[in-house]
Hints:
The structure holds two protein chains of two kinds.
Chain A: H1 8-15, H2 22-32, H3 35-53, H4 64-102, H5 109-112, E1 125-126, E2 131-135, E3 144-150, E4 159-161, E5 165-171, E6 174-176, E7 179-181, E8 186-189, E9 198-199, E10 205-211, E11 215-217, H6 220-225
Antiparallel strand pairs in A: 1-2, 2-3, 3-10, 4-11, 5-8, 5-10, 6-7, 6-9
Helix pairs in contact in A: 1-3
Chain B: H1 3-20, H2 24-44, H3 49-66, H4 77-96, H5 103-106, H6 124-144, H7 147-159, H8 163-170, H9 174-206
Amino acid sequence: MANYHPADELLMQFAAGQLTNALGIQAACHLESCSQCQHKVRLYEQLGGDLIDISSPVDVAPDAKSKLLAALHQQQATGERASIKSAAELSLDAFYEEQLSQANQRLPKPLRRFVPEYYDNLPWKGLSKSIQSYDLPFSDEQYTARFYKIAAGKELPQHTHNGNEFTLVMSGSFADLSGDYHPGDFVLADHSTHHQPKAHDKEDCICFAVTDAPLKMTGFFGRMLNPFLR
Amino acid sequence: MTQSTQSNAQYLNQLVLQVAQKNEQAYLELFDSCAGRLKAYAIKCGSNPSDAEDLLQECLLTVWNKAPQFNPKTASAMTWMYTIIRNRRIDLLRKEKPNLLQSFDLWPDGHIEQSQPDDFTSSDLNDDVESDLNAKSVRILIESLPEEQRQIVYKVYFEGKSHSEISLDLSLPLGTIKSRLRLAMKKLDNLAKEQMTWLIIILLTNF
Ligand SMILES: [Zn+2]
């Protein structure tokens, strides 16, 4: 059970369907295993329903109803055939899906479409021996999404952040001045955070990090490393 | 919550349950009572009128197809339809911007859109009690939020605005926006806790 959770504002944006980006995937991964946040999101979804409930209707196109019925009847007419035809396809899809997911089925569901392998077999890129990264394919203009692997017992260079860095611990654990973080924990660092995360001794720590601005390293080694982090 | 909104919620639940039985008459009634408000949601989210009509069609077709999975114990009909139109909206946006994620990526199990009885860890009894409370409480809250807080909640839900964008929109300092939203969230949070407290009390008195 996670001890650190996304802010309520973020969960509300998620429930509002307004996080169709790396942050949304990250929130979805946390939610998969956090019943406390699931409960809140359900509450905010209810709030969404209530916002529709209390709103004033606008006029719909005069032919909207007949168009809908036509579409429905068309679907019913072709539906039988389509479903017979797709039964075989469906089982084939399921088969491939199962094959594909063998390697990554221990990942949270929202990541499986994007990450082909479990952590051990990913093509990590070395920034140094103690920290490696894997770029996630759903970064956009605003957010960069990556896995970071901090080697057991190693410390990241001290750094601050130009923007926000949202970190979800996936495996292993790390600590910094403000806490001890375990799988499922969701941590936000902003420009006022000056931290030096250190992975615990027993195993590598894998984090899913979403940043909205590049890291800014402050120590000597940090300055040397910084170009590689871009 | 007044008697009429309570019975209206039950009326919608009944309609969706009848739609699940492929009842076209109920489907048309559902259209009459919700289409205008569902389209209003699309417009508030920034759709032009013609995209809003498309979203409405997609949403209502999905309602027909997924009605058998509607479970009034998990969510009210309006909440369930909200999750459907929210997700269809995301998927329609994606057609224009292919790098956007699909709703499937964010809600891989469909959550309440197609919740199965075993979706949640709580027992059936839990679900009963909880949904009963769910059905009553939040609307009281949204109606009791002061206009200044409601306005910000609206902007989060419909416009997807960040705090700083809302602050520009309303020409108010960022700090004011944050504290107003925090107040609204706190009310919601208290409400959630209250729900949990009632849930525990009811469960205890049932044993
Ligand atoms: Zn949580």
